[in-house]
Amino acid sequence: MPDRELEIDRISKRYGNVTALREMTFTVRAGEMFGFVGSNGAGKTTTMRIALGVLSADSGEVRWNGAPLDLQARRRIGYMPEERGLYPKMKVADQLAYLAELHGMSAKDAAVAAEQWTERLGLGARRDEEVQKLSLGNQQRVQLAAALVHDPEVLILDEPFSGLDPVAVDVMSAVLREKCDSGVPVVFSSHQLDLVQRLCDRIGIVRSGQMVACGSVAELRDQGPTTLVVDAPDAQPGWADGVPGAEVVEVAGTRTTLRLADDADDQAVLKAALATGPVREFTRNRPTLTELFRNVVTEEPAA
User: Where is the ABC transporter domain (predicted)?
Assistant: First the structure.
């Protein structure tokens, strides 16, 4: 039986004539941070809500530890919605303790946990303030504390870094990494691709309700197009036009950026560049996650 794995297995969901999810499938492993990225409306939030039981799937299954995710198992999930899911007029500590009790903790343990997490997330001085009186960044910290206060076995977070300043991003990143290191699977969606690339062990890219690319950053970058940057100061325009599999995408001064086909020979590019004179730079690059994301989400979906 899998150990602490969250499995999303061929989940589909329609709203009338609109297909929100089409056999969405991925697994988040124990101790893994999984980045879930896609354009607005791609199906990320719908997937998370189905995992939480807030929505029902038309087909497919969500499993935890190899078994269908039931109500009891869902109580062990820490969930952070993109929209505010807090009681605005309730004090921070009271709210966290209340939410912890709803997840089965005793009143005493809930109060201790609320104190620990407000301190950990830099909210100690705000415990007795109403949530609505906090800054948006501090409200976001309270939202994370609400997801963590009952010591969940899995974390599902929808845009957790939205609206945070750099210090708060560092605090939240450290907390999520600590949870992963303790064996908790963490899945979060985000439009901040630099953060996703820096933090996540694996990444899934979603387009039109389907998982279209999934793997580590290195694996995804290896699947993306290779570019070459060539600085040939004496080269004339069009020097690379005859090289098979090489496409010029940008010329900036003496530097030319080319995209290579999968079967292209970069040495043929170098030979063509040297034929024009000296070459001061010849750099082979893999796409960043942002570039890869842009390429994937703008591809024509399969018929």
Answer: 6-233
